[in-house]
């Protein structure tokens, strides 16, 4: 029967030229993964377009493969090379024809996503064809004389000497084939053709820049075969969890136009750059900055000769990635704890001013930073310089109480670790900040955190007031608090805040924004573009990332994660 017949083959797999496994079968009792042999075949034969007799050996395995260029499929069968399976060539042909016939419609609607979503339920057809192939080969071998080498007996005997993975010898009781296989069938599970499961889809790496050999991806991940010629193919791993295909898929799809023997001009790249720009904007990178980033990528590529699709795709990707990393890499490190200690040694408080537009999370993140400083053994004075918005002072008082209850004075020599300096509403914020700093100096507070009222960047009087507060008090650090939710607005906010600070500076070295607190990072999914916009505009680092509404939701920026989120389709 087909099940017994399955004994002869180690595996059979059908995958797209993009590397998506459509269907696969693993022979009964085969414990070795066939990942290694298939990857070896892809790397050393298929990708290098080495044709020939369509067979390949890898360790103890013989692999035969067949390419279907019309539907861009690859059929691979593997069996112990010690077996001389005369029916294999015809068998692959049969499988190919059958598979094509049966799934013609599905295969015609190309597109990786379609392939991935499709359930190629090919098990029964496969078993039937395998049975037929074995039967006819048996008939033929009975008709002609076999050499001992060709006989199944010799095959079985030799196979029995091959150790399986567990170190156990394959059972070989000798005798007739049927008996033999039955026995094997008893001690191992009956062959279960494995089809790509919904949650664990198999994807072969068909080249590209990554060195990943084999990936088991979750259901949200899919492999996009973007363009394929037999020697240049790229499998790009794309996260579809955002339910949005396109993006980079589309962009890299367009790269094929750039392959050629002449050097790249700006014109050649125009459409690709436009796609890339759209992609970045979709990730919330401000439009202007997206354009500038694409410009820098274009500059890196101009004049290069792109011999293959793989080179062009990985070069564009690399160029963009480098630019993004460069932007996020702080030119200057802000090390608040070190700076606070230095101020301590000078017997003065370290002063941080928080500014930004309304409702972005200034006060909340100020409280989180207080908590972090307290945890690090410092004392904090909060200066309530939002004398404008109703409830602003009470909001800070609530935080002060809560923080003191988390770190009760009795644990700190009877002294509250955090105190609020407030003068109610309507007063001049700059004056209160000054008094607070003087108070902190007298009372030996380590840090003063100055909360300011939210203000729109276009509100000239309020912007002037903020600039004055900063100019007269000369804080050690001016942190701009901005929401990760913003897109184009980020640029306008930062440009105008910096402009106001510069305009009202009283020194020739104006105090500008020194760092950024990027808030509500927990709410943006993978639209992390604001991180790029803000650092690009200011050239200043993101000092803190707010990731929620509790005191613990404060992080430092993970630049690598941001870049990879930006690169993701
Ligand atoms: N999810 C989330 N919410 C945040 C985060 N930071 C602040 N918030 C929320 O944003 C809202 C506004 O926070 P505030 O701290 O009052 O903002 P503000 O900038 O001080 O506001 P104004 O003083 O009115 O300008 C509050 O509901 C906060 O809980 C964050 O990182 N993640
Ligand atoms: Mg506030």
TrEMBL record:
GO molecular function: GTP binding; GTPase activity; signal recognition particle binding
Keyword GTP-binding: yes
Main location: endoplasmic reticulum
Entry GO CC: signal recognition particle receptor complex
Keyword terms of this UniProt record: Endoplasmic reticulum, GTP-binding, Membrane, Nucleotide-binding, Receptor
Domain SRP54-type proteins GTP-binding residue range list: 541-554
UniProt-listed SMART domains: AAA (SM00382), SRP54 (SM00962), SRP54_N (SM00963)
Renumbered residue ranges of the record's region Disordered: 140-202
Compartments (UniProt record): Endoplasmic reticulum membrane
Topology versus the membrane: Peripheral membrane protein
Gene3D superfamilies attached to this UniProt entry: 3.30.450.60, P-loop containing nucleotide triphosphate hydrolases, Signal recognition particle SRP54, nucleotide-binding domain
Presence of the UniProt keyword Oxidoreductase in the record: no
PROSITE patterns attached to this UniProt entry: SRP54
Matches recorded under SUPFAM superfamilies: Domain of the SRP/SRP receptor G-proteins, P-loop containing nucleoside triphosphate hydrolases, SNARE-like
Alphabetized Pfam families for the sequence: SRP-alpha_N, SRP54, SRP54_N
Protein family according to the UniProt entry: Belongs to the GTP-binding SRP family.
Name this protein carries in UniProt: SRP receptor subunit alpha
Organism placement in taxonomy: Eukaryota, Metazoa, Chordata, Craniata, Vertebrata
């Amino acid at each position: 029967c087909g099940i017994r017949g399955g004994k002869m083959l180690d595996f059979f797999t059908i995958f797209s030229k993009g590397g998506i496994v459509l269907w696969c079968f693993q022979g009964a009792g085969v414990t070795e993964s066939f990942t290694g042999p298939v990857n070896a075949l892809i790397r050393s034969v298929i990708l290098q377009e080495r044709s020939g007799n369509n067979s390949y050996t890898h360790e103890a395995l013989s692999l035969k493969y067949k390419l279907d260029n019309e539907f861009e499929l690859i059929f691979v069968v593997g069996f112990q090379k010690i077996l001389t399976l005369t029916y294999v060539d015809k068998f692959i042909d049969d499988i190919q024809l059958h598979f094509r016939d049966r799934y013609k419609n599905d295969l015609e609607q190309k597109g990786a996503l379609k392939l991935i979503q499709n359930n190629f339920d090919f098990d029964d057809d496969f078993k039937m064809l395998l049975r037929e192939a074995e039967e006819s080969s048996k008939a033929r071998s009975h008709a002609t004389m076999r050499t001992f080498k060709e006989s199944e007996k010799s095959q079985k005997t030799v196979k029995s000497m091959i150790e399986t993975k567990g170190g156990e010898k394959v059972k070989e009781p000798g005798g007739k084939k049927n008996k033999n296989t039955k026995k094997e069938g008893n001690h191992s599970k009956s062959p279960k053709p494995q089809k790509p499961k919904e949650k664990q889809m198999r994807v072969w790496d068909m080249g590209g820049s990554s060195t990943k050999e084999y990936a088991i991806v979750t259901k949200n991940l899919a492999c996009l075969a973007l363009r394929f010629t037999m020697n240049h193919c790229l499998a790009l791993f794309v996260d579809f969890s955002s339910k949005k295909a396109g993006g980079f898929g589309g962009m890299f799809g367009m790269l094929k136009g750039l392959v050629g023997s002449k050097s790249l001009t700006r014109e050649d790249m125009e459409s690709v750059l436009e796609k890339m720009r759209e992609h970045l904007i979709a990730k919330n990178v401000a439009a202007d900055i997206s354009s500038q980033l694409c410009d820098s990528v274009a500059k890196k590529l101009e004049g290069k000769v792109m011999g293959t699709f793989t080179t062009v795709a990985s070069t564009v990707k690399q160029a963009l990635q480098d630019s993004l990393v460069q932007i996020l890499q702080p030119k200057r490190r802000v090390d608040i704890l070190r700076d606070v200690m230095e101020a301590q040694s000078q017997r003065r408080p370290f002063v941080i001013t928080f500014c930004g537009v309304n409702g972005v999370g200034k006060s909340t993140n100020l409280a989180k930073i207080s908590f972090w400083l307290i945890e690090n053994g410092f004392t904090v004075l909060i200066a309530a310089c939002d004398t404008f918005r109703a409830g602003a002072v009470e909001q800070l008082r609530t935080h002060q109480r809560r923080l003191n209850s988390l770190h009760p004075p009795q644990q700190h020599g009877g002294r509250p670790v955090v105190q609020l300096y407030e003068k109610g509403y309507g007063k001049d914020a700059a004056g209160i900040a000054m008094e607070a700093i003087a108070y902190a100096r007298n009372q030996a507070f380590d840090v003063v955190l100055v909360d300011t009222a939210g203000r729109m960047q276009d509100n000239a009087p309020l912007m002037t007031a903020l600039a004055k507060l900063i100019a007269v008090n000369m804080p050690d650090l001016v942190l701009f608090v901005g929401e990760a939710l913003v897109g184009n607005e980020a640029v306008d906010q930062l440009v105008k805040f910096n402009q106001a600070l510069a305009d009202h500076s009283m020194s020739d070295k104006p105090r500008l924004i020194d760092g950024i607190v990027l808030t509500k990072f927990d709410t943006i999914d993978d639209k992390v573009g604001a991180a790029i916009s803000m650092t690009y505009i200011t050239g200043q680092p993101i000092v803190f990332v707010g990731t929620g509404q509790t005191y613990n939701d404060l992080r430092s920026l993970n630049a690598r994660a941001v870049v990879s989120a930006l690169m993701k389709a």
